[in-house]
Amino acid sequence: MTRLAMAIDLASCVGCAACSIACKMENEVPLGVNRLWIRNTTVGTFPNLTVEHRPEQCLHCENPPCVPVCPTGCCFVRDDGIVDIDVKKCIGCSACIAACPYDARHMLPQGYVSKCDFCKHRVDEGRMPACVETCPTLCRTFGDLDDPNSPVSIAIREARRVDVLRPGLGTEPNLYYLNTPAAFGLVGETGGTL
Amino acid sequence: MALGGSAQAQLFPDGFPNPFRAPPGKWFTKDDVTTSYNYCEICFWKCGIQASVQGGKVRKVDGYESNPKSRGMLCPRGQGGVATTYDPDRLKKPLIRVEGSERGSGQYREASWDEAYDYIAEKMNQIKFEHGSESVAFFGHGTGDAWFASYLPGAWGSPNAAKPSVSLCTGPRETASQYTFGRGISGHEQIDWDETDYIVLIGHHIGEDTHNTQLQDFALALKRGAKLVVVDPRFSVAASKANDWLPIKPATDTALLLAWANVLVEEGLYDAEYVDKYTVGFEQLAAHVAQYTPEWAAEITEIPADTIRRIAREMAAHAPRAVLPVNRHTVWYGPDDMHRMRSLYIVNVLLGNYGMPGGYYFCDAPVVEAYPHPALPLSPASGGCGGGSTDVVTDSPFRPAADRGKFFGTATAVQELIEPMLTGEPYPIKGLFSYGVNLFHSIPMVERTKQALKELDLYVAIDILPMEHVMWADVILPESTYLERYDDLLLQAYKTPFISARFPAHPPLYDTRGAFDMAKQLGERLGLGEYFPWENVEEYLDRRLSSIGSSLEALKDQGTIVRRGRPYFADWERLNRNPIGTPSGKIEIYSERFAEAGLDPLPVFVPPIEGPSGMYRLLYGRSPVHTFARTHNNPILMEAHGENGVWISTSEAAGLGIRHNEYVYLENQDGVREGPVRAYVTERIRNDCVYLVHGFGHKTPLMRIANGRGASDNYLQTRYDLDPVSGGAGLRNNWVKLVKGAPDPQHPPVAWLAREGSRA
Ligand code: SF4
Ligand code: SF4
Ligand code: SF4
User: Which residue out of A9, A19, A138 has the highest number of ligand 1 atoms within 8 Å of its CB and is therefore the one to mutate?
Assistant: First the structure.
């Protein structure tokens, strides 16, 4: 089996948004919406501070709440674990947008839903997703969790700490955050701006 | 930063579901995708890129593995910078200011290239006849500045060629390096990140200035376990990765560095063998720094003496694999700047790291012969990021540059060439070329610049976008972007020196030309044709490449040629050569040349200039998604960061009754106002300063997206303090207060503006 996953090492991420903009170019994401965005949050008081730079995108959950709500069956999970959308079947009802607890989906002007698809066109050619390839801090890893030698398996194994967003929801995300700067893990949902 | 998710879908004017519209195939599904090699020009870092073209448009750029600058990765600006080529607000045709209209009133008519060149040539010849060829000044920034701030002025005969990248940026570090090591810092700071174990950054904004390779190296070093200390009045992104953050009082860094030198010397922690072998002047230094105790520095810097001692000892414990990297923008406080940079180098030298693994490596640009041409009558000392030399041309038949005598260094200082336009002293400057230099967003005292422009007989602007200063010119020459033009070879000094080429991804979209062609065509008009003997850019590049046994055709498939370097002393010693270019052949801790010139031969602490009470020192820096003031009309980058905010500490803001995100005005010590700008209320800054990201606050409706967003630090810099050694303009002695009651400017969404622009 293949179980594709991504990990972002927050000890390295500087919140530069190269990933977000590479994604925008690669996938022709229109202005006004994003498949990938950054939250920068300050924790602490002067001079005992830390800042979490946290990129967010579709988490490609094992239990994706967006899939069962789709009335046409256009939202589905590929064999390799990518939560995908068959846009030809999408009627733009927005049920999946409402169901996603991470706000990862958006409507395109053309009338169908879109989100991060792990750059499946690249993955299918054996290339890395655009965000992983460009990240200048090399903090993103991607690959097959079932392969112990994939970059993502190695990164998760070597991490001091591994977190996922809102684990209590039972969505079992395949997007992992490694080495959070704050000792308590990921910071809450509200973020600061640059 | 960018926000995501469905909440934003409503911003889209026609974002309504339409089940009958078939989803369009993305660019990568098409079969007409081609790629070409290039190097990025969105900043000066010049990463190697491959541009993917589909349907006549560049859809994506990527780095490529064999290029040492990108190594297959790009920064956000490189990724999104592509959109600038397709910006509907671009300059599209040569323009001539309507006869009789006032400069700055923005009235233009379209002209042919021939007419534009004739206009310029006639005025230049007239200025030469009346005042001499030196009375035309040339400012340049970007790859084409080799033509417009070096070659053309050299052929024409004006020493008044200057780059803001020197006296408004790297000047102090370059002069300090020349007089300490007899070498410049290369355009790519030669820090041996792969080998270092301990890093001390002095106000160095890695992660906010996303110089791609540097950010990669920095992140990898930390991942490897290198320790990081960040000295900054602001909790920068780099500070957020640090083991120690030292929130230093602004303008006191030199005191800290001198105290570190004191501890290294007093406690015998310096590398005695290295110092003995490679340096001169240690004895004088030891006597000199005895006064700079950690206790003395603690008073000044507000960093505890114990911390100062501890960090010095930690550095020494990791030496020579401990490094204090040189930063790029070093014009901070004026008279202090050279001393700060010399102190920084000296601490590195005491750690024995210069020319050693884990410290600073040596690098030289790869050698490719110039296209044969007659010797130029003059070689202007415009310098560059890679540094000006210390050579003084004495036998020139031309008058010396109009800034001579104002400071010790030899590289021309851009800001010192404004005054002669106004006063005619020491001689008048009556003509000006601005190639890619944003006169109103880089040179302090904007009002003075505007007054000076009014006095000129000729002002030519070469640019891509209708920036404010461009729309003051008599003649505007629109340049093709990096994706549309050839350029000269990039000869990069690096650990492994390399050569990269730029190939146009597609023909120019508009009636624009590249600097290479403009310089030749204008040169010919000026009767300087003999200096431009090549047929065209392809033939020029091919001939240069043939000198190393390569060709333009070969580079088309290869993009980059990588050479072997000589990074360490050991590599030079094997060849019996000395990389140190000082008169003594040693690293000059004590500078005889400074002593002879009546300057301090050892660095001293210059107490900071203090500001009016109730005002905050204005600090500034970078956004990871923007370059200078250059990218603020790019919809993709502006969506990621669309306006700057003024950082102010939570406690100060509470005292002023200012809430986070509230719009305020900034008013400086001379009553100049900027804004409205959001208050960014944060724990991440000291109480005695505020901070702005540079480059925002454009003031022209011709740049629809940039116009009126945020505040400009440069407009608030109504004073500067000259570094009498390097000629750098210290910009951080300006003070502001926050004024409540600014209206919310209600900026329309970038997406909406971009659509309006492409419809117009
Ligand atoms: S490109 Fe890398 S460092 Fe930059 S925000 Fe994205 S994940 Fe973080
Ligand atoms: S994997 Fe591809 S689609 Fe997903 S966030 Fe990264 S670049 Fe965007
Ligand atoms: S650092 Fe970024 S903007 Fe600068 S040349 Fe490289 S990719 Fe381009």
Answer: A19
| Predicted pLDDT at B7 | 41
**Which among B241, B641, B749 has CB closest to A32?**
B749
DSSP string, B99-149: TTPPTTS--EEE--HHHHHHHHHHHHHHHHHHH-GGGEEEEE-STTHHIII
- Say which CATH class B616-759 falls into: mainly beta
Closest CA to B232 of B259, B258, B203: B203
So what's the pLDDT on residue B281? 98
Which residue ranges make up each domain of chain B? 95-169+368-496+512-536, 191-202+212-228+253-360+586-596, 616-759
Could you tell me the end-to-end alpha-carbon distance of chain B, in angstroms, rounded to an integer?
28
CATH number, domain B191-202+212-228+253-360+586-596, options 3.40.228.10, 2.60.40.1250, 3.20.20.100, 3.30.565.10: 3.40.228.10
- Give the pLDDT of residue B11: 36
Nearest residue (CA) to ligand 2, atom 8:
A23
Distances, alpha carbon B615 to alpha carbons B320, B671, B736, B737, in Å:
42, 12, 5, 5
Residue B15 above 60 pLDDT?
A: no
Domains B191-202+212-228+253-360+586-596 and B616-759 share a fold: no
The closest residue, in CA terms, to atom 7 on ligand 1 is A13
Task: Let me know: does A41 contact A170? Beta carbons within 8 Å.
Answer: no
Ligand 1 is surrounded, with C-beta below 6 A, by A 8, 13-19, 38, 53, 55, 135, 137, 139-140
* B456-478 residue pLDDT tens: 999 999 999 999 999 999 999 99
Q: What is the DSSP letter of B595?
A: H
**DSSP characters for B289-315?**
HTT--HHHHHHHH-S-HHHHHHHHHHH
Helix axes B537-546, B515-525, angle to 10 degrees: 110
Atom number of ligand 1 nearest to Cα A17? 5
B650 contacts in chain A (CB < 8 Å): 45-46
When the candidates are 3.40.50.720, 3.40.50.450, 2.130.10.10, 3.40.50.740, the CATH number that belongs to B95-169+368-496+512-536 is: 3.40.50.740
Task: Name the residue with higher pLDDT: B654 or B755.
Answer: B654
Going from the Cα of B465 to the center of ligand 1, the distance in angstroms, rounded, reads 29
Closest Cβ opposite residue B19 in set A18, A47, A91: A91
Nearest ligand 3 atom to alpha carbon B213: 1
Calculate how close chain A gets to B753, using CA atoms only, in Å.
10
Atom of ligand 2 nearest to the CA of A132: 6
pTM: 0.96
User: Coil, helix or strand for B542?
Assistant: helix
Query: Which residues of chain A are within 8 Å of residue B74 when distances are taken between CB atoms?
Result: 18, 22, 134, 136
* Contacting B residues, span 247-266, partner chain A, CB-CB under 8 Å: 247
B115-164 pLDDT per residue, tens: 999 999 999 999 999 999 999 999 999 999 999 999 999 999 999 999 99
Domains of chain A, first to last: 4-184 (3.30.70.20)
Nearest by CB to residue A92, choosing from B19, B27, B216, is: B19
The alpha carbon dihedral of B443, B448, B453, B455 has a sign of negative
